[in-house]
């Protein structure tokens, strides 16, 4: 068994989306509510952090250091977890320094995280500097890479896939937002381990499909190794679509706004502007283009992110 702390509210529900399915006139849609994992407004990072935090504890960590964009959901969940376990937390954030704290960044500050600002292209170097400085000051830091997408983080989503099977979940397709690839990697591994016949489609929110496929395959293979399974996953088995990146990471476009509206008005369900809004926009477009069969069952894996709706960068543009 791989060490794990228990903090997430699991299993997350699977719910049908009958009104949205009817409006789109297409396949049957379902949602897996990982926006409700329970830690500080939830999201997919909570599952990963159950395993990554256990790893940090095994290293005797007294401080968590991680990195993300200003509205990073991963940073918000990490900051909350650090607070809950009495650890210090430093976040390396990239992007424009907000004039007023809002959305995830407001919550980072509420949880007492320290913030170091940098530029996107410099974040690796700054992250290493912050880590080495903390180490030399005797603070026992533990570094969590972007999105907690390590082999250990991906293991969490192999377990999440098992949870879906144990819930009696059935689907021909799973669709989710993919970025640092750990979530999709874990699901792909879970599907392999259980002999599932459906397909798992990642909608890339930022990287080219080839990059995401390679990274999913690499992390899935490494996560299998962590579980003691000799499974090799190759990039050509992975489904990733990168046609919905639009103007780039975190740039809200018409498609995301429409997807957020459709889910809100027909199901009372919230999506986020950066990840699930983009993935849902891709899903909606693929349905309209006849990519799926009309009797396909599609599970939209909701990965969270809703606090970003209230960010000053997005809120004024949603209506
Ligand atoms: C981090 C994140 C993702 C992407 O997950 P990866 O494992 O990095 O691919 C998707 N949705 C939300 C809301 C996220 O915060």
TrEMBL record:
Keywords, alphabetical: Lyase, Pyridoxal phosphate
Enzyme Commission code(s) on record: 4.4.1.-
Leading EC class: lyase
Cofactor: pyridoxal 5'-phosphate
Presence of keyword Hydrolase: no
Superkingdom: Bacteria
Name of a matching Pfam family: PALP
Coiled coil regions in record: none
GO molecular function: lyase activity
Keyword DNA repair tagged: no
Residues in Tryptophan synthase beta chain-like PALP domain copies: 8-304
Family: Belongs to the ACC deaminase/D-cysteine desulfhydrase family.
Protein name per Swiss-Prot or TrEMBL: D-cysteine desulfhydrase family protein
């Amino acid at each position: 068994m791989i060490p794990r702390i228990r903090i997430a509210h699991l299993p997350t529900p699977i719910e049908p989306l009958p009104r949205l399915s009817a409006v789109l006139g297409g396949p049957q849609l379902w949602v897996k509510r990982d926006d409700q994992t329970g830690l500080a407004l939830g999201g997919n990072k909570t599952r990963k952090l159950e395993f990554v935090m256990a790893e940090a504890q095994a290293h005797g960590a007294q401080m968590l250091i991680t990195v993300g964009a200003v509205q990073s959901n991963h940073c918000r969940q990490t900051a909350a977890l650090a607070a809950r376990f009495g650890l210090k937390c430093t976040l390396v954030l990239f992007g424009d320094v907000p004039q007023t704290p809002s959305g995830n960044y407001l919550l980072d500050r509420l949880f007492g995280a320290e913030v170091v600002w940098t530029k996107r292209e410099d974040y690796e170097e700054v992250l290493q500097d912050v880590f080495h400085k903390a180490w030399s000051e005797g603070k026992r830091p533990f570094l969590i890479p972007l999105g907690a997408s390590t082999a250990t983080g991906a293991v969490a989503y192999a377990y999440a896939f098992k949870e879906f099977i144990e819930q009696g979940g059935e689907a021909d397709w799973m669709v989710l937002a993919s970025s640092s690839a750990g979530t999709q990697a874990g699901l792909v591994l879970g599907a392999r381990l259980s002999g599932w016949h459906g397909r798992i489609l990642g909608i890339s929110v930022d990287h080219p499909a080839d990059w995401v496929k390679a990274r999913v395959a690499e992390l899935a293979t490494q996560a299998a190794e962590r579980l003691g399974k000799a499974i090799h996953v190759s990039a050509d088995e992975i489904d990733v679509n990168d046609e919905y990146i639009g103007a780039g990471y975190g740039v809200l476009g018409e498609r995301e706004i429409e997807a957020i509206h459709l889910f809100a008005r027909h199901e009372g369900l919230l999506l986020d502007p950066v990840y699930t809004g983009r993935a849902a926009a891709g899903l909606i477009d693929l349905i309209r283009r006849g990519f799926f069969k009309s009797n396909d069952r599609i599970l939209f894996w909701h990965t969270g992110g809703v606090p970003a709706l209230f960010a000053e960068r997005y809120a004024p543009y949603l209506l």
